[in-house]
Design a protein that fits this description.
Structural class: alpha/beta
Radius of gyration: 25 Å
Mean pLDDT: 96
Order of helices and strands: EEEEEEEEEEEEEEEEEEEEEEEEEEHH
CATH class of the largest domain: Mainly Beta
Shape: elongated
Strand content: 25-35%
Number of strands: 26
Length: 213
């Protein structure tokens, strides 16, 4: 009940669409796709330009294509492209409460965990895992077989076949080393200030003795 399917949309065989799903016009959904309650596919991408102080909407006239064997969790939104299409490739699994912006491409067999936000025109490779609450800026590329740790902020391209964590994202082992230092920074700062004061006193002593000679 409560499902809405827009004009010129198609849905492949053996797909399951739960209650209160909204599918906007010109959406293509493949075979064996599962859309859980509250999913919205094909709503306008978030695109505006400034005219003075006024925000002027950019028409979003593209579409969304969801390939075979995709599952999308409750209350996830996938925006239509401004031009062209937003694409979710075969075998992708998306958790609840995920935002996929216009013109994004998510590669085959990737996993997107809850509360991830992917900004417009980003391309995500195959077999990528984005853990919970990862934020991804627009217009970048994430390579195949990448894993990004929870609550990371991805602000640049990520090379394939690596694990990353943190904000800004670092290779995971580098991030672990950095994180181990963070709790010590206040004490390290205090020590550095003390050392600086001692060094100044030593320099003053040396300088005064030089003048006495």
């Amino acid at each position: 009940p409560g499902v809405s399917i827009g004009e010129d949309s198609s849905i492949g065989e053996d797909s399951v669409i739960y209650s209160n799903v909204s599918i906007y016009s010109k959406t293509v959904i493949g075979k064996r796709v599962i859309l859980h309650s509250g999913v919205v596919v094909g709503s306008d991408g978030f695109g505006y330009v400034k005219d003075g102080k006024k925000n002027v909407k950019i028409l979003q006239v593209g579409s969304v294509e969801i390939e075979d064997d995709v599952e999308i969790g409750s209350n996830t939104t996938i925006d239509r492209a401004a031009l062209g299409k937003t694409t979710i490739r075969r075998g992708v699994k998306i958790d609840n409460l995920v935002q996929v912006a216009h013109n994004v491409v998510i590669g085959e067999d990737s996993i997107i965990v809850a509360q991830v936000g992917i900004s417009g025109s980003t391309k995500i490779g195959s077999n990528v895992t984005l853990a919970g609450q990862v934020g991804v800026v627009g217009h970048i590329e994430i390579g195949d077989n990448v894993m990004v740790g929870a609550q990371s902020g991805v602000a640049h391209d990520l090379a394939p076949n690596q694990a990353f964590s943190g904000y800004p994202t670092l290779p995971h082992r580098e991030w672990l080393r950095a994180v181990s230092v963070y709790p010590k920074l206040p004490e390290m700062r205090k020590t550095l200030i003390d050392l600086e004061k001692r060094l100044i006193k030593i320099e003053e002593t040396i300088s005064s003795k030089g003048k006495e000679k």
